[in-house]
């Protein structure tokens, strides 16, 4: 039989998802037991676009970068999902690229509430749980987990996807060759927050607004960090809401969905590097080998 604690987590997740009515939360359909294997199967909405983790790794494989406009839509979807969860007294507690899914049309949805928690009257939860690499400083030091802790995890996620690497020195990297989990967590608490860096050699430049948004997400002190609904009012977020982004076309290009019409080289480029230097889309200017790579680099520019 499954571990009683695991079963308890699953029951909590299923009971919440069954009544969930947010466009930014994966829909739950049902569950079944496999008595032979001692497992519980969960039937949920199929998000054909895959996880944000799989998407950015595919873009990286193609030699492109996920653009700032796409990241804006991702951030907006996550913040809306977190705001909905808070209205139901739920903290997600495990925001990371693999727990952010995309539908075929590009709608952003949160999944995996196996570690989510209900908070009390003070709006916090006390159990030490979640993926350590994305954990906010207050959780690492044993303080209460609040909804703003999920905002920190979003900031780390956006940095990772934008730069195609985890923003802190992970286990066994060149920066910290002997680093273990404790070393990493100590680094996150004590060292300055990572910055989103331009890459002039690739003509890759990010907007000041995006940099400021990430800085706000990565405020070290949890009681000073903005809530998801406040972050939805951030100047960069308000600007991103005005941008037209063809998320469906972006995913078609990344995954090379043959049944859909593929973009041509002209439409895939979709941005004038001479005019904006790639600041709006965070694109690279290196000559690509094919239209698919160009489109992945353009990453979210509206196809007209």
TrEMBL record:
Classification via SMART domains: S_TKc
InterPro entries tied to this protein: Kinase-like_dom_sf (IPR011009), MAP_kinase_kinase (IPR050915), Prot_kinase_dom (IPR000719), Ser/Thr_kinase_AS (IPR008271)
Any GO molecular function: ATP binding
Superkingdom, natural source: Eukaryota
Keyword Kinase: yes
Alphabetical UniProt keywords: ATP-binding, Kinase, Nucleotide-binding, Transferase
UniProt feature coiled coil, ranges: none
One GO biological process term: MAPK cascade
Family matches, as Gene3D superfamilies: Phosphorylase Kinase, domain 1, Transferase(Phosphotransferase) domain 1
Residue stretches making up the Protein kinase domain: 1-237
Membrane among keywords: no
Record family assignment: Belongs to the protein kinase superfamily. STE Ser/Thr protein kinase family. MAP kinase kinase subfamily.
This protein's name: Protein kinase domain-containing protein
Source organism: Hortaea werneckii
């Amino acid at each position: 039989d499954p571990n009683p604690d695991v079963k308890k987590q699953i029951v909590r997740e299923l009971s919440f998802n069954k009544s969930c009515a947010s466009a930014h939360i994966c829909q739950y359909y049902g569950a079944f037991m496999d008595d032979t294997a001692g497992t519980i199967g969960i039937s949920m909405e199929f998000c054909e676009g895959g996880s944000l983790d799989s998407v950015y790794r595919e873009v990286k494989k193609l030699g492109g970068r996920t653009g700032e406009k796409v990241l804006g839509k991702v951030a907006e979807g996550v913040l809306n999902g977190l705001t909905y969860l808070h209205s139901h007294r739920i903290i997600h507690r495990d925001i990371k690229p693999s727990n952010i899914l995309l539908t075929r049309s590009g709608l952003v949805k949160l999944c995996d509430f196996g570690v989510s928690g209900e908070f009390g009257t003070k709006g916090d939860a006390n159990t030490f749980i979640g993926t350590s690499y994305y954990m906010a400083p207050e959780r690492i030091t044993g303080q209460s987990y609040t909804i703003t802790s999920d905002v920190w995890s979003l900031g780390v996620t956006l940095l990772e996807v934008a730069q195609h690497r985890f923003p802190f020195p992970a286990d066994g990297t060149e920066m910290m060759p002997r680093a273990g989990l404790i070393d990493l967590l100590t680094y996150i608490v004590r060292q300055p927050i990572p910055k989103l860096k331009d890459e002039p050699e690739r003509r890759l430049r990010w907007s000041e607004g995006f940099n400021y948004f990430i800085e706000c997400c990565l405020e070290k002190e949890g009681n000073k960090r903005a809530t998801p609904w406040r972050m939805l009012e951030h100047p960069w977020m308000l600007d991103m809401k005005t941008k037209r982004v063809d998320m469906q076309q972006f995913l078609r290009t990344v995954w090379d969905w043959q049944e859909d019409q593929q973009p041509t080289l002209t439409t895939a480029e979709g941005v004038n590097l001479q005019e904006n230097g790639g600041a709006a889309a965070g694109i690279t200017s290196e000559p690509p080998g094919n239209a698919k790579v160009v489109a992945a680099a353009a990453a979210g520019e509206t196809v007209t």
